[in-house]
Write a structure and sequence with these properties.
Elements lengths: L7 E8 L2 E9 L14 H16 L23 H11 L5 E4 L9 H13 L3 E4 L9 H34 L21 H15 L4 H10 L12 H9 L6 E4 L3 E4 L8 H16 L16 E3 L7 E3 L8 E3 L3 E2 L5 E2 L5 E3 H16 L2 H11 L4 H24 L5 H31 L8 H7 L2 H11 E6 L10 E2 L2 E2 L5 E5 L2
Parallel strand pairs: 3-4, 7-13
Antiparallel strand pairs: 1-2, 1-3, 5-6, 8-9, 9-12, 10-11, 13-16, 14-15
Helix pairs in contact: 3-4, 5-7, 5-8, 6-7, 8-12, 10-12, 11-12
C-alpha cells in the first residue's frame, strides 16, 4: 500500500499574551495518501492544509521533510526524511510538529509509541490539521496510544481485505494486466495473431532445448520487437515462455492456479513441457557462458578425487589442458588431488567422436522416437511430481501438529524424498529426449559440427553428456600416441544423460 504523510515541525514559544516564533520546520512524510504516478498531488493537498494551519497560528516555516510515496507501515521501507526528522528532534532542533493527522506520522503501534516517547522526552508538542495529540497528560498519552492501535489495525484490515479481493479475482479467472501483455490485444483477453505466433515459436524452441540467448538473437536478427518496441534478451525470452497466462492459466502469488477467462496461445500440455525444459536448463550445472572458450568446461571430472577439472592455458611450452587443481576452499578444506590433466584438443576430439557416434546409436534413436510418440508424458510426470511435493509438505504439517512422531516423520520423509528424486530424474531424461528430437539426423553430423560455432556444439554435448571422467595414468603406464598426441582414450569415461 502506498502511504503519504505531511507533518510540519515548528518551534514556538509563548510569553504572556505575545507569541514569539524562533524556528519552524515542516515535515512532509508518506503514510496513507497514495501517489502511484509519483506526481506528488496527494502530498501537495495535505501540505497545503498544513501550511494554512501555520499561517493561522503565525508559525514561521523554515524547513520541510518529504518522503513522497514511501510506506509508513512497512518495516522494510527506508524513510530518509523521517529518520532525519528524528535526528533533529534528538538534537533539540524541533520544538513542535504540525501534521495533517497523527496516522501520517506512522501506522505501526511500535513506531508511534517510540515517536511519542521521544517527543515527550524532548518536550516537542504536536499540532494536527485533523484531530489532536496531547502528550502532556496521562489521558492524552493514552488516547495517542489508542489512536496508534487503531491506525495499525486499519492498515492490517485493509491489507487483508485487499489480498482476499485479489484472490477472489484470481479464482474467477479474471486477468490483471498493468500493461498490454505480448501476444494479446490491450486488456489481455483477445490474441494478437502476429505476436501469438512469436510466442508459440519461442515456446516450441524452448521445448526443443534451444538456449534463450540463441532465441533472442534470432528474433532480433528478424527485427521482431518486444511489446515496448525494444530488442529481445535471454531474460525476456525466458519470462515470455514461462508465463502461465500463455495457456490461459490465472496465477496468484506464484502458488495458486486457476482457469483464466481469456483466449490461450498454447495448450496446458505445451506449457508443462516449457516449464520442464526451463527447469532442466536451470538445474544444469556450469552452463555455457558468453565468453566460454572450450567445449567441455564444467563437464570434466577427475577420476581420482572427483574434483572438477579446469581449462588452463599451457605454460613453459606445454599445450592447454584440463587440470585437476589442488587448493583450499573457502571453508579451508583441501580440494583436488592435482594428479590428473589431459590435453584439451585430444579430449575434446574424443568427446566429439563419442557424441557423433552416440547420435547414430539405436539407444538414442529409440529415445527420440519414443519421445515423439508421447507428447503428454512430461506433463503427466510433472503432475505426479507436484502431487508428491504437496505430500512432502503435508508430512511437515502432520509432524508439527503431532500426528506423526519424530521417527515416523523421518522414515516417511526419506521415502517421499526418494520418490520425488525419481520423478525429477525421469522428467530430466524425458526432457532431454524432447530436446534431442529437434536434432536433424538426416544431415551429415560431421559436416554440421564443423560448420557450426562453439555454442551449437556445446548445446549438443550438454544434451547427451552428463559428465566426462578422466582417470590418472597408473604407474609405468605406457604413453601411446592417439591422433598425433600422447593420449590414452581408454582412461576416459563418458557418462551419458540419454
Amino acid at each position: 500500500m502506498v502511504l503519504l504523510l505531511f507533518p510540519t515541525f515548528c518551534e514556538i514559544m509563548s510569553v504572556g499574551n505575545e507569541k514569539h516564533e524562533s524556528r519552524c520546520t515542516r515535515c512532509d512524510l508518506r503514510q496513507n495518501s497514495q501517489d502511484p504516478r509519483l506526481d506528488g498531488m496527494g502530498v501537495a493537498r495535505q501540505l497545503e492544509d498544513c501550511r494554512k494551519l501555520c499561517d493561522r497560528n503565525e508559525f514561521t516555516v523554515v524547513d520541510e521533510y518529504v518522503d513522497n510515496d514511501r510506506s509508513a507501515y512497512s518495516e522494510t521501507v527506508k524513510r530518509a526524511a523521517y529518520d532525519r526528522l528524528l535526528d533533529d528532534v534528538r538534537h533539540g532542533r524541533i520544538d513542535a510538529i504540525v501534521a495533517y493527522k497523527d496516522d501520517r506520522l506512522g501506522r505501526r503501534l511500535r513506531t508511534l509509541i517510540d515517536l511519542y516517547d521521544l517527543l515527550k522526552q524532548h518536550g516537542v508538542v504536536i499540532h494536527l490539521v485533523s484531530g489532536s495529540v496531547d502528550l502532556q497528560t496521562p489521558q492524552g498519552i493514552a488516547m495517542a496510544q489508542v489512536a496508534a492501535v487503531m491506525a495499525e489495525n486499519y492498515v492490517s484490515t485493509a491489507r487483508e481485505n485487499n489480498l482476499r479481493s485479489r484472490r477472489q479475482i484470481a479464482e474467477a479467472g479474471k486477468r490483471h494486466c498493468a500493461r498490454r501483455p505480448y501476444g494479446w490485444e490491450p486488456g489481455g483477453l483477445v490474441v494478437k495473431p502476429d505476436e501469438a505466433e512469436v510466442v508459440r515459436e519461442i515456446c516450441k524452441r524452448v521445448i526443443a532445448g534451444e538456449a534463450p540467448t540463441s532465441i533472442a538473437y534470432s528474433l532480433n536478427l528478424r527485427d521482431i520487437p518486444t511489446v515496448e518496441g525494444r530488442g529481445w534478451t535471454a531474460i525476456g525470452v525466458r519470462k515470455c515462455a514461462a508465463r502461465a497466462s500463455n495457456a490461459a492459466i490465472r496465477e496468484h502469488r506464484g502458488t495458486l492456479y486457476y482457469n483464466g477467462q481469456w483466449e490461450p496461445i498454447i495448450s496446458h500440455d505445451e506449457y508443462a513441457q516449457v516449464m520442464a525444459a526451463l527447469e532442466v536448463r536451470a538445474n544444469m550445472k556450469y552452463k555455457r557462458g558468453v565468453g566460454r572458450k572450450y567445449l567441455l568446461t564444467g563437464l570434466v571430472y577427475c577420476g581420482e578425487c572427483g574434483n572438477r577439472l579446469g581449462a588452463t592455458v599451457g605454460a613453459s611450452g606445454r599445450k592447454p589442458a584440463y587440470r585437476c587443481h589442488k587448493n583450499l576452499s573457502n571453508d579451508n578444506l583441501e580440494r583436488g588431488c592435482g594428479k590428473v590433466s589431459r590435453n584439451i584438443e585430444a579430449l575434446e576430439l574424443l568427446v566429439k567422436k563419442a557424441v557423433l557416434a552416440r547420435l547414430n546409436s539405436p539407444a538414442v534413436l529409440d529415445a527420440i522416437a519414443t519421445r515423439k510418440s508421447s507428447d503428454t508424458a512430461v506433463s503427466e510426470l510433472i503432475t505426479q511430481r507436484d502431487g508428491q511435493s504437496v505430500r512432502l509438505d503435508q508430512l511437515v504439517n502432520d509432524y508439527a501438529t503431532g500426528l506423526l512422531t519424530a521417527d515416523q516423520f523421518r522414515q516417511a520423509k526419506t521415502v517421499a524424498e526418494q520418490k520425488l528424486a525419481e520423478l525429477n530424474q525421469k522428467i530430466s531424461r524425458l526432457t532431454a529426449n524432447t530436446e534431442l528430437a529437434s536434432v536433424d539426423l538426416s544431415v551429415d553430423l560431421e559436416t554440421a559440427w564443423t560448420a557450426n560455432a562453439l555454442p551449437w556444439r556445446r548445446n549438443l554435448v550438454e544434451l547427451l553428456v552428463d559428465r566426462v571422467e578422466v582417470n590418472p595414468y597408473p604407474p609405468g603406464y605406457p604413453r601411446k600416441f592417439w591422433e598425433g598426441v600422447k593420449f590414452a582414450p581408454e582412461l576416459v569415461t563418458v557418462k551419458w544423460r540419454v
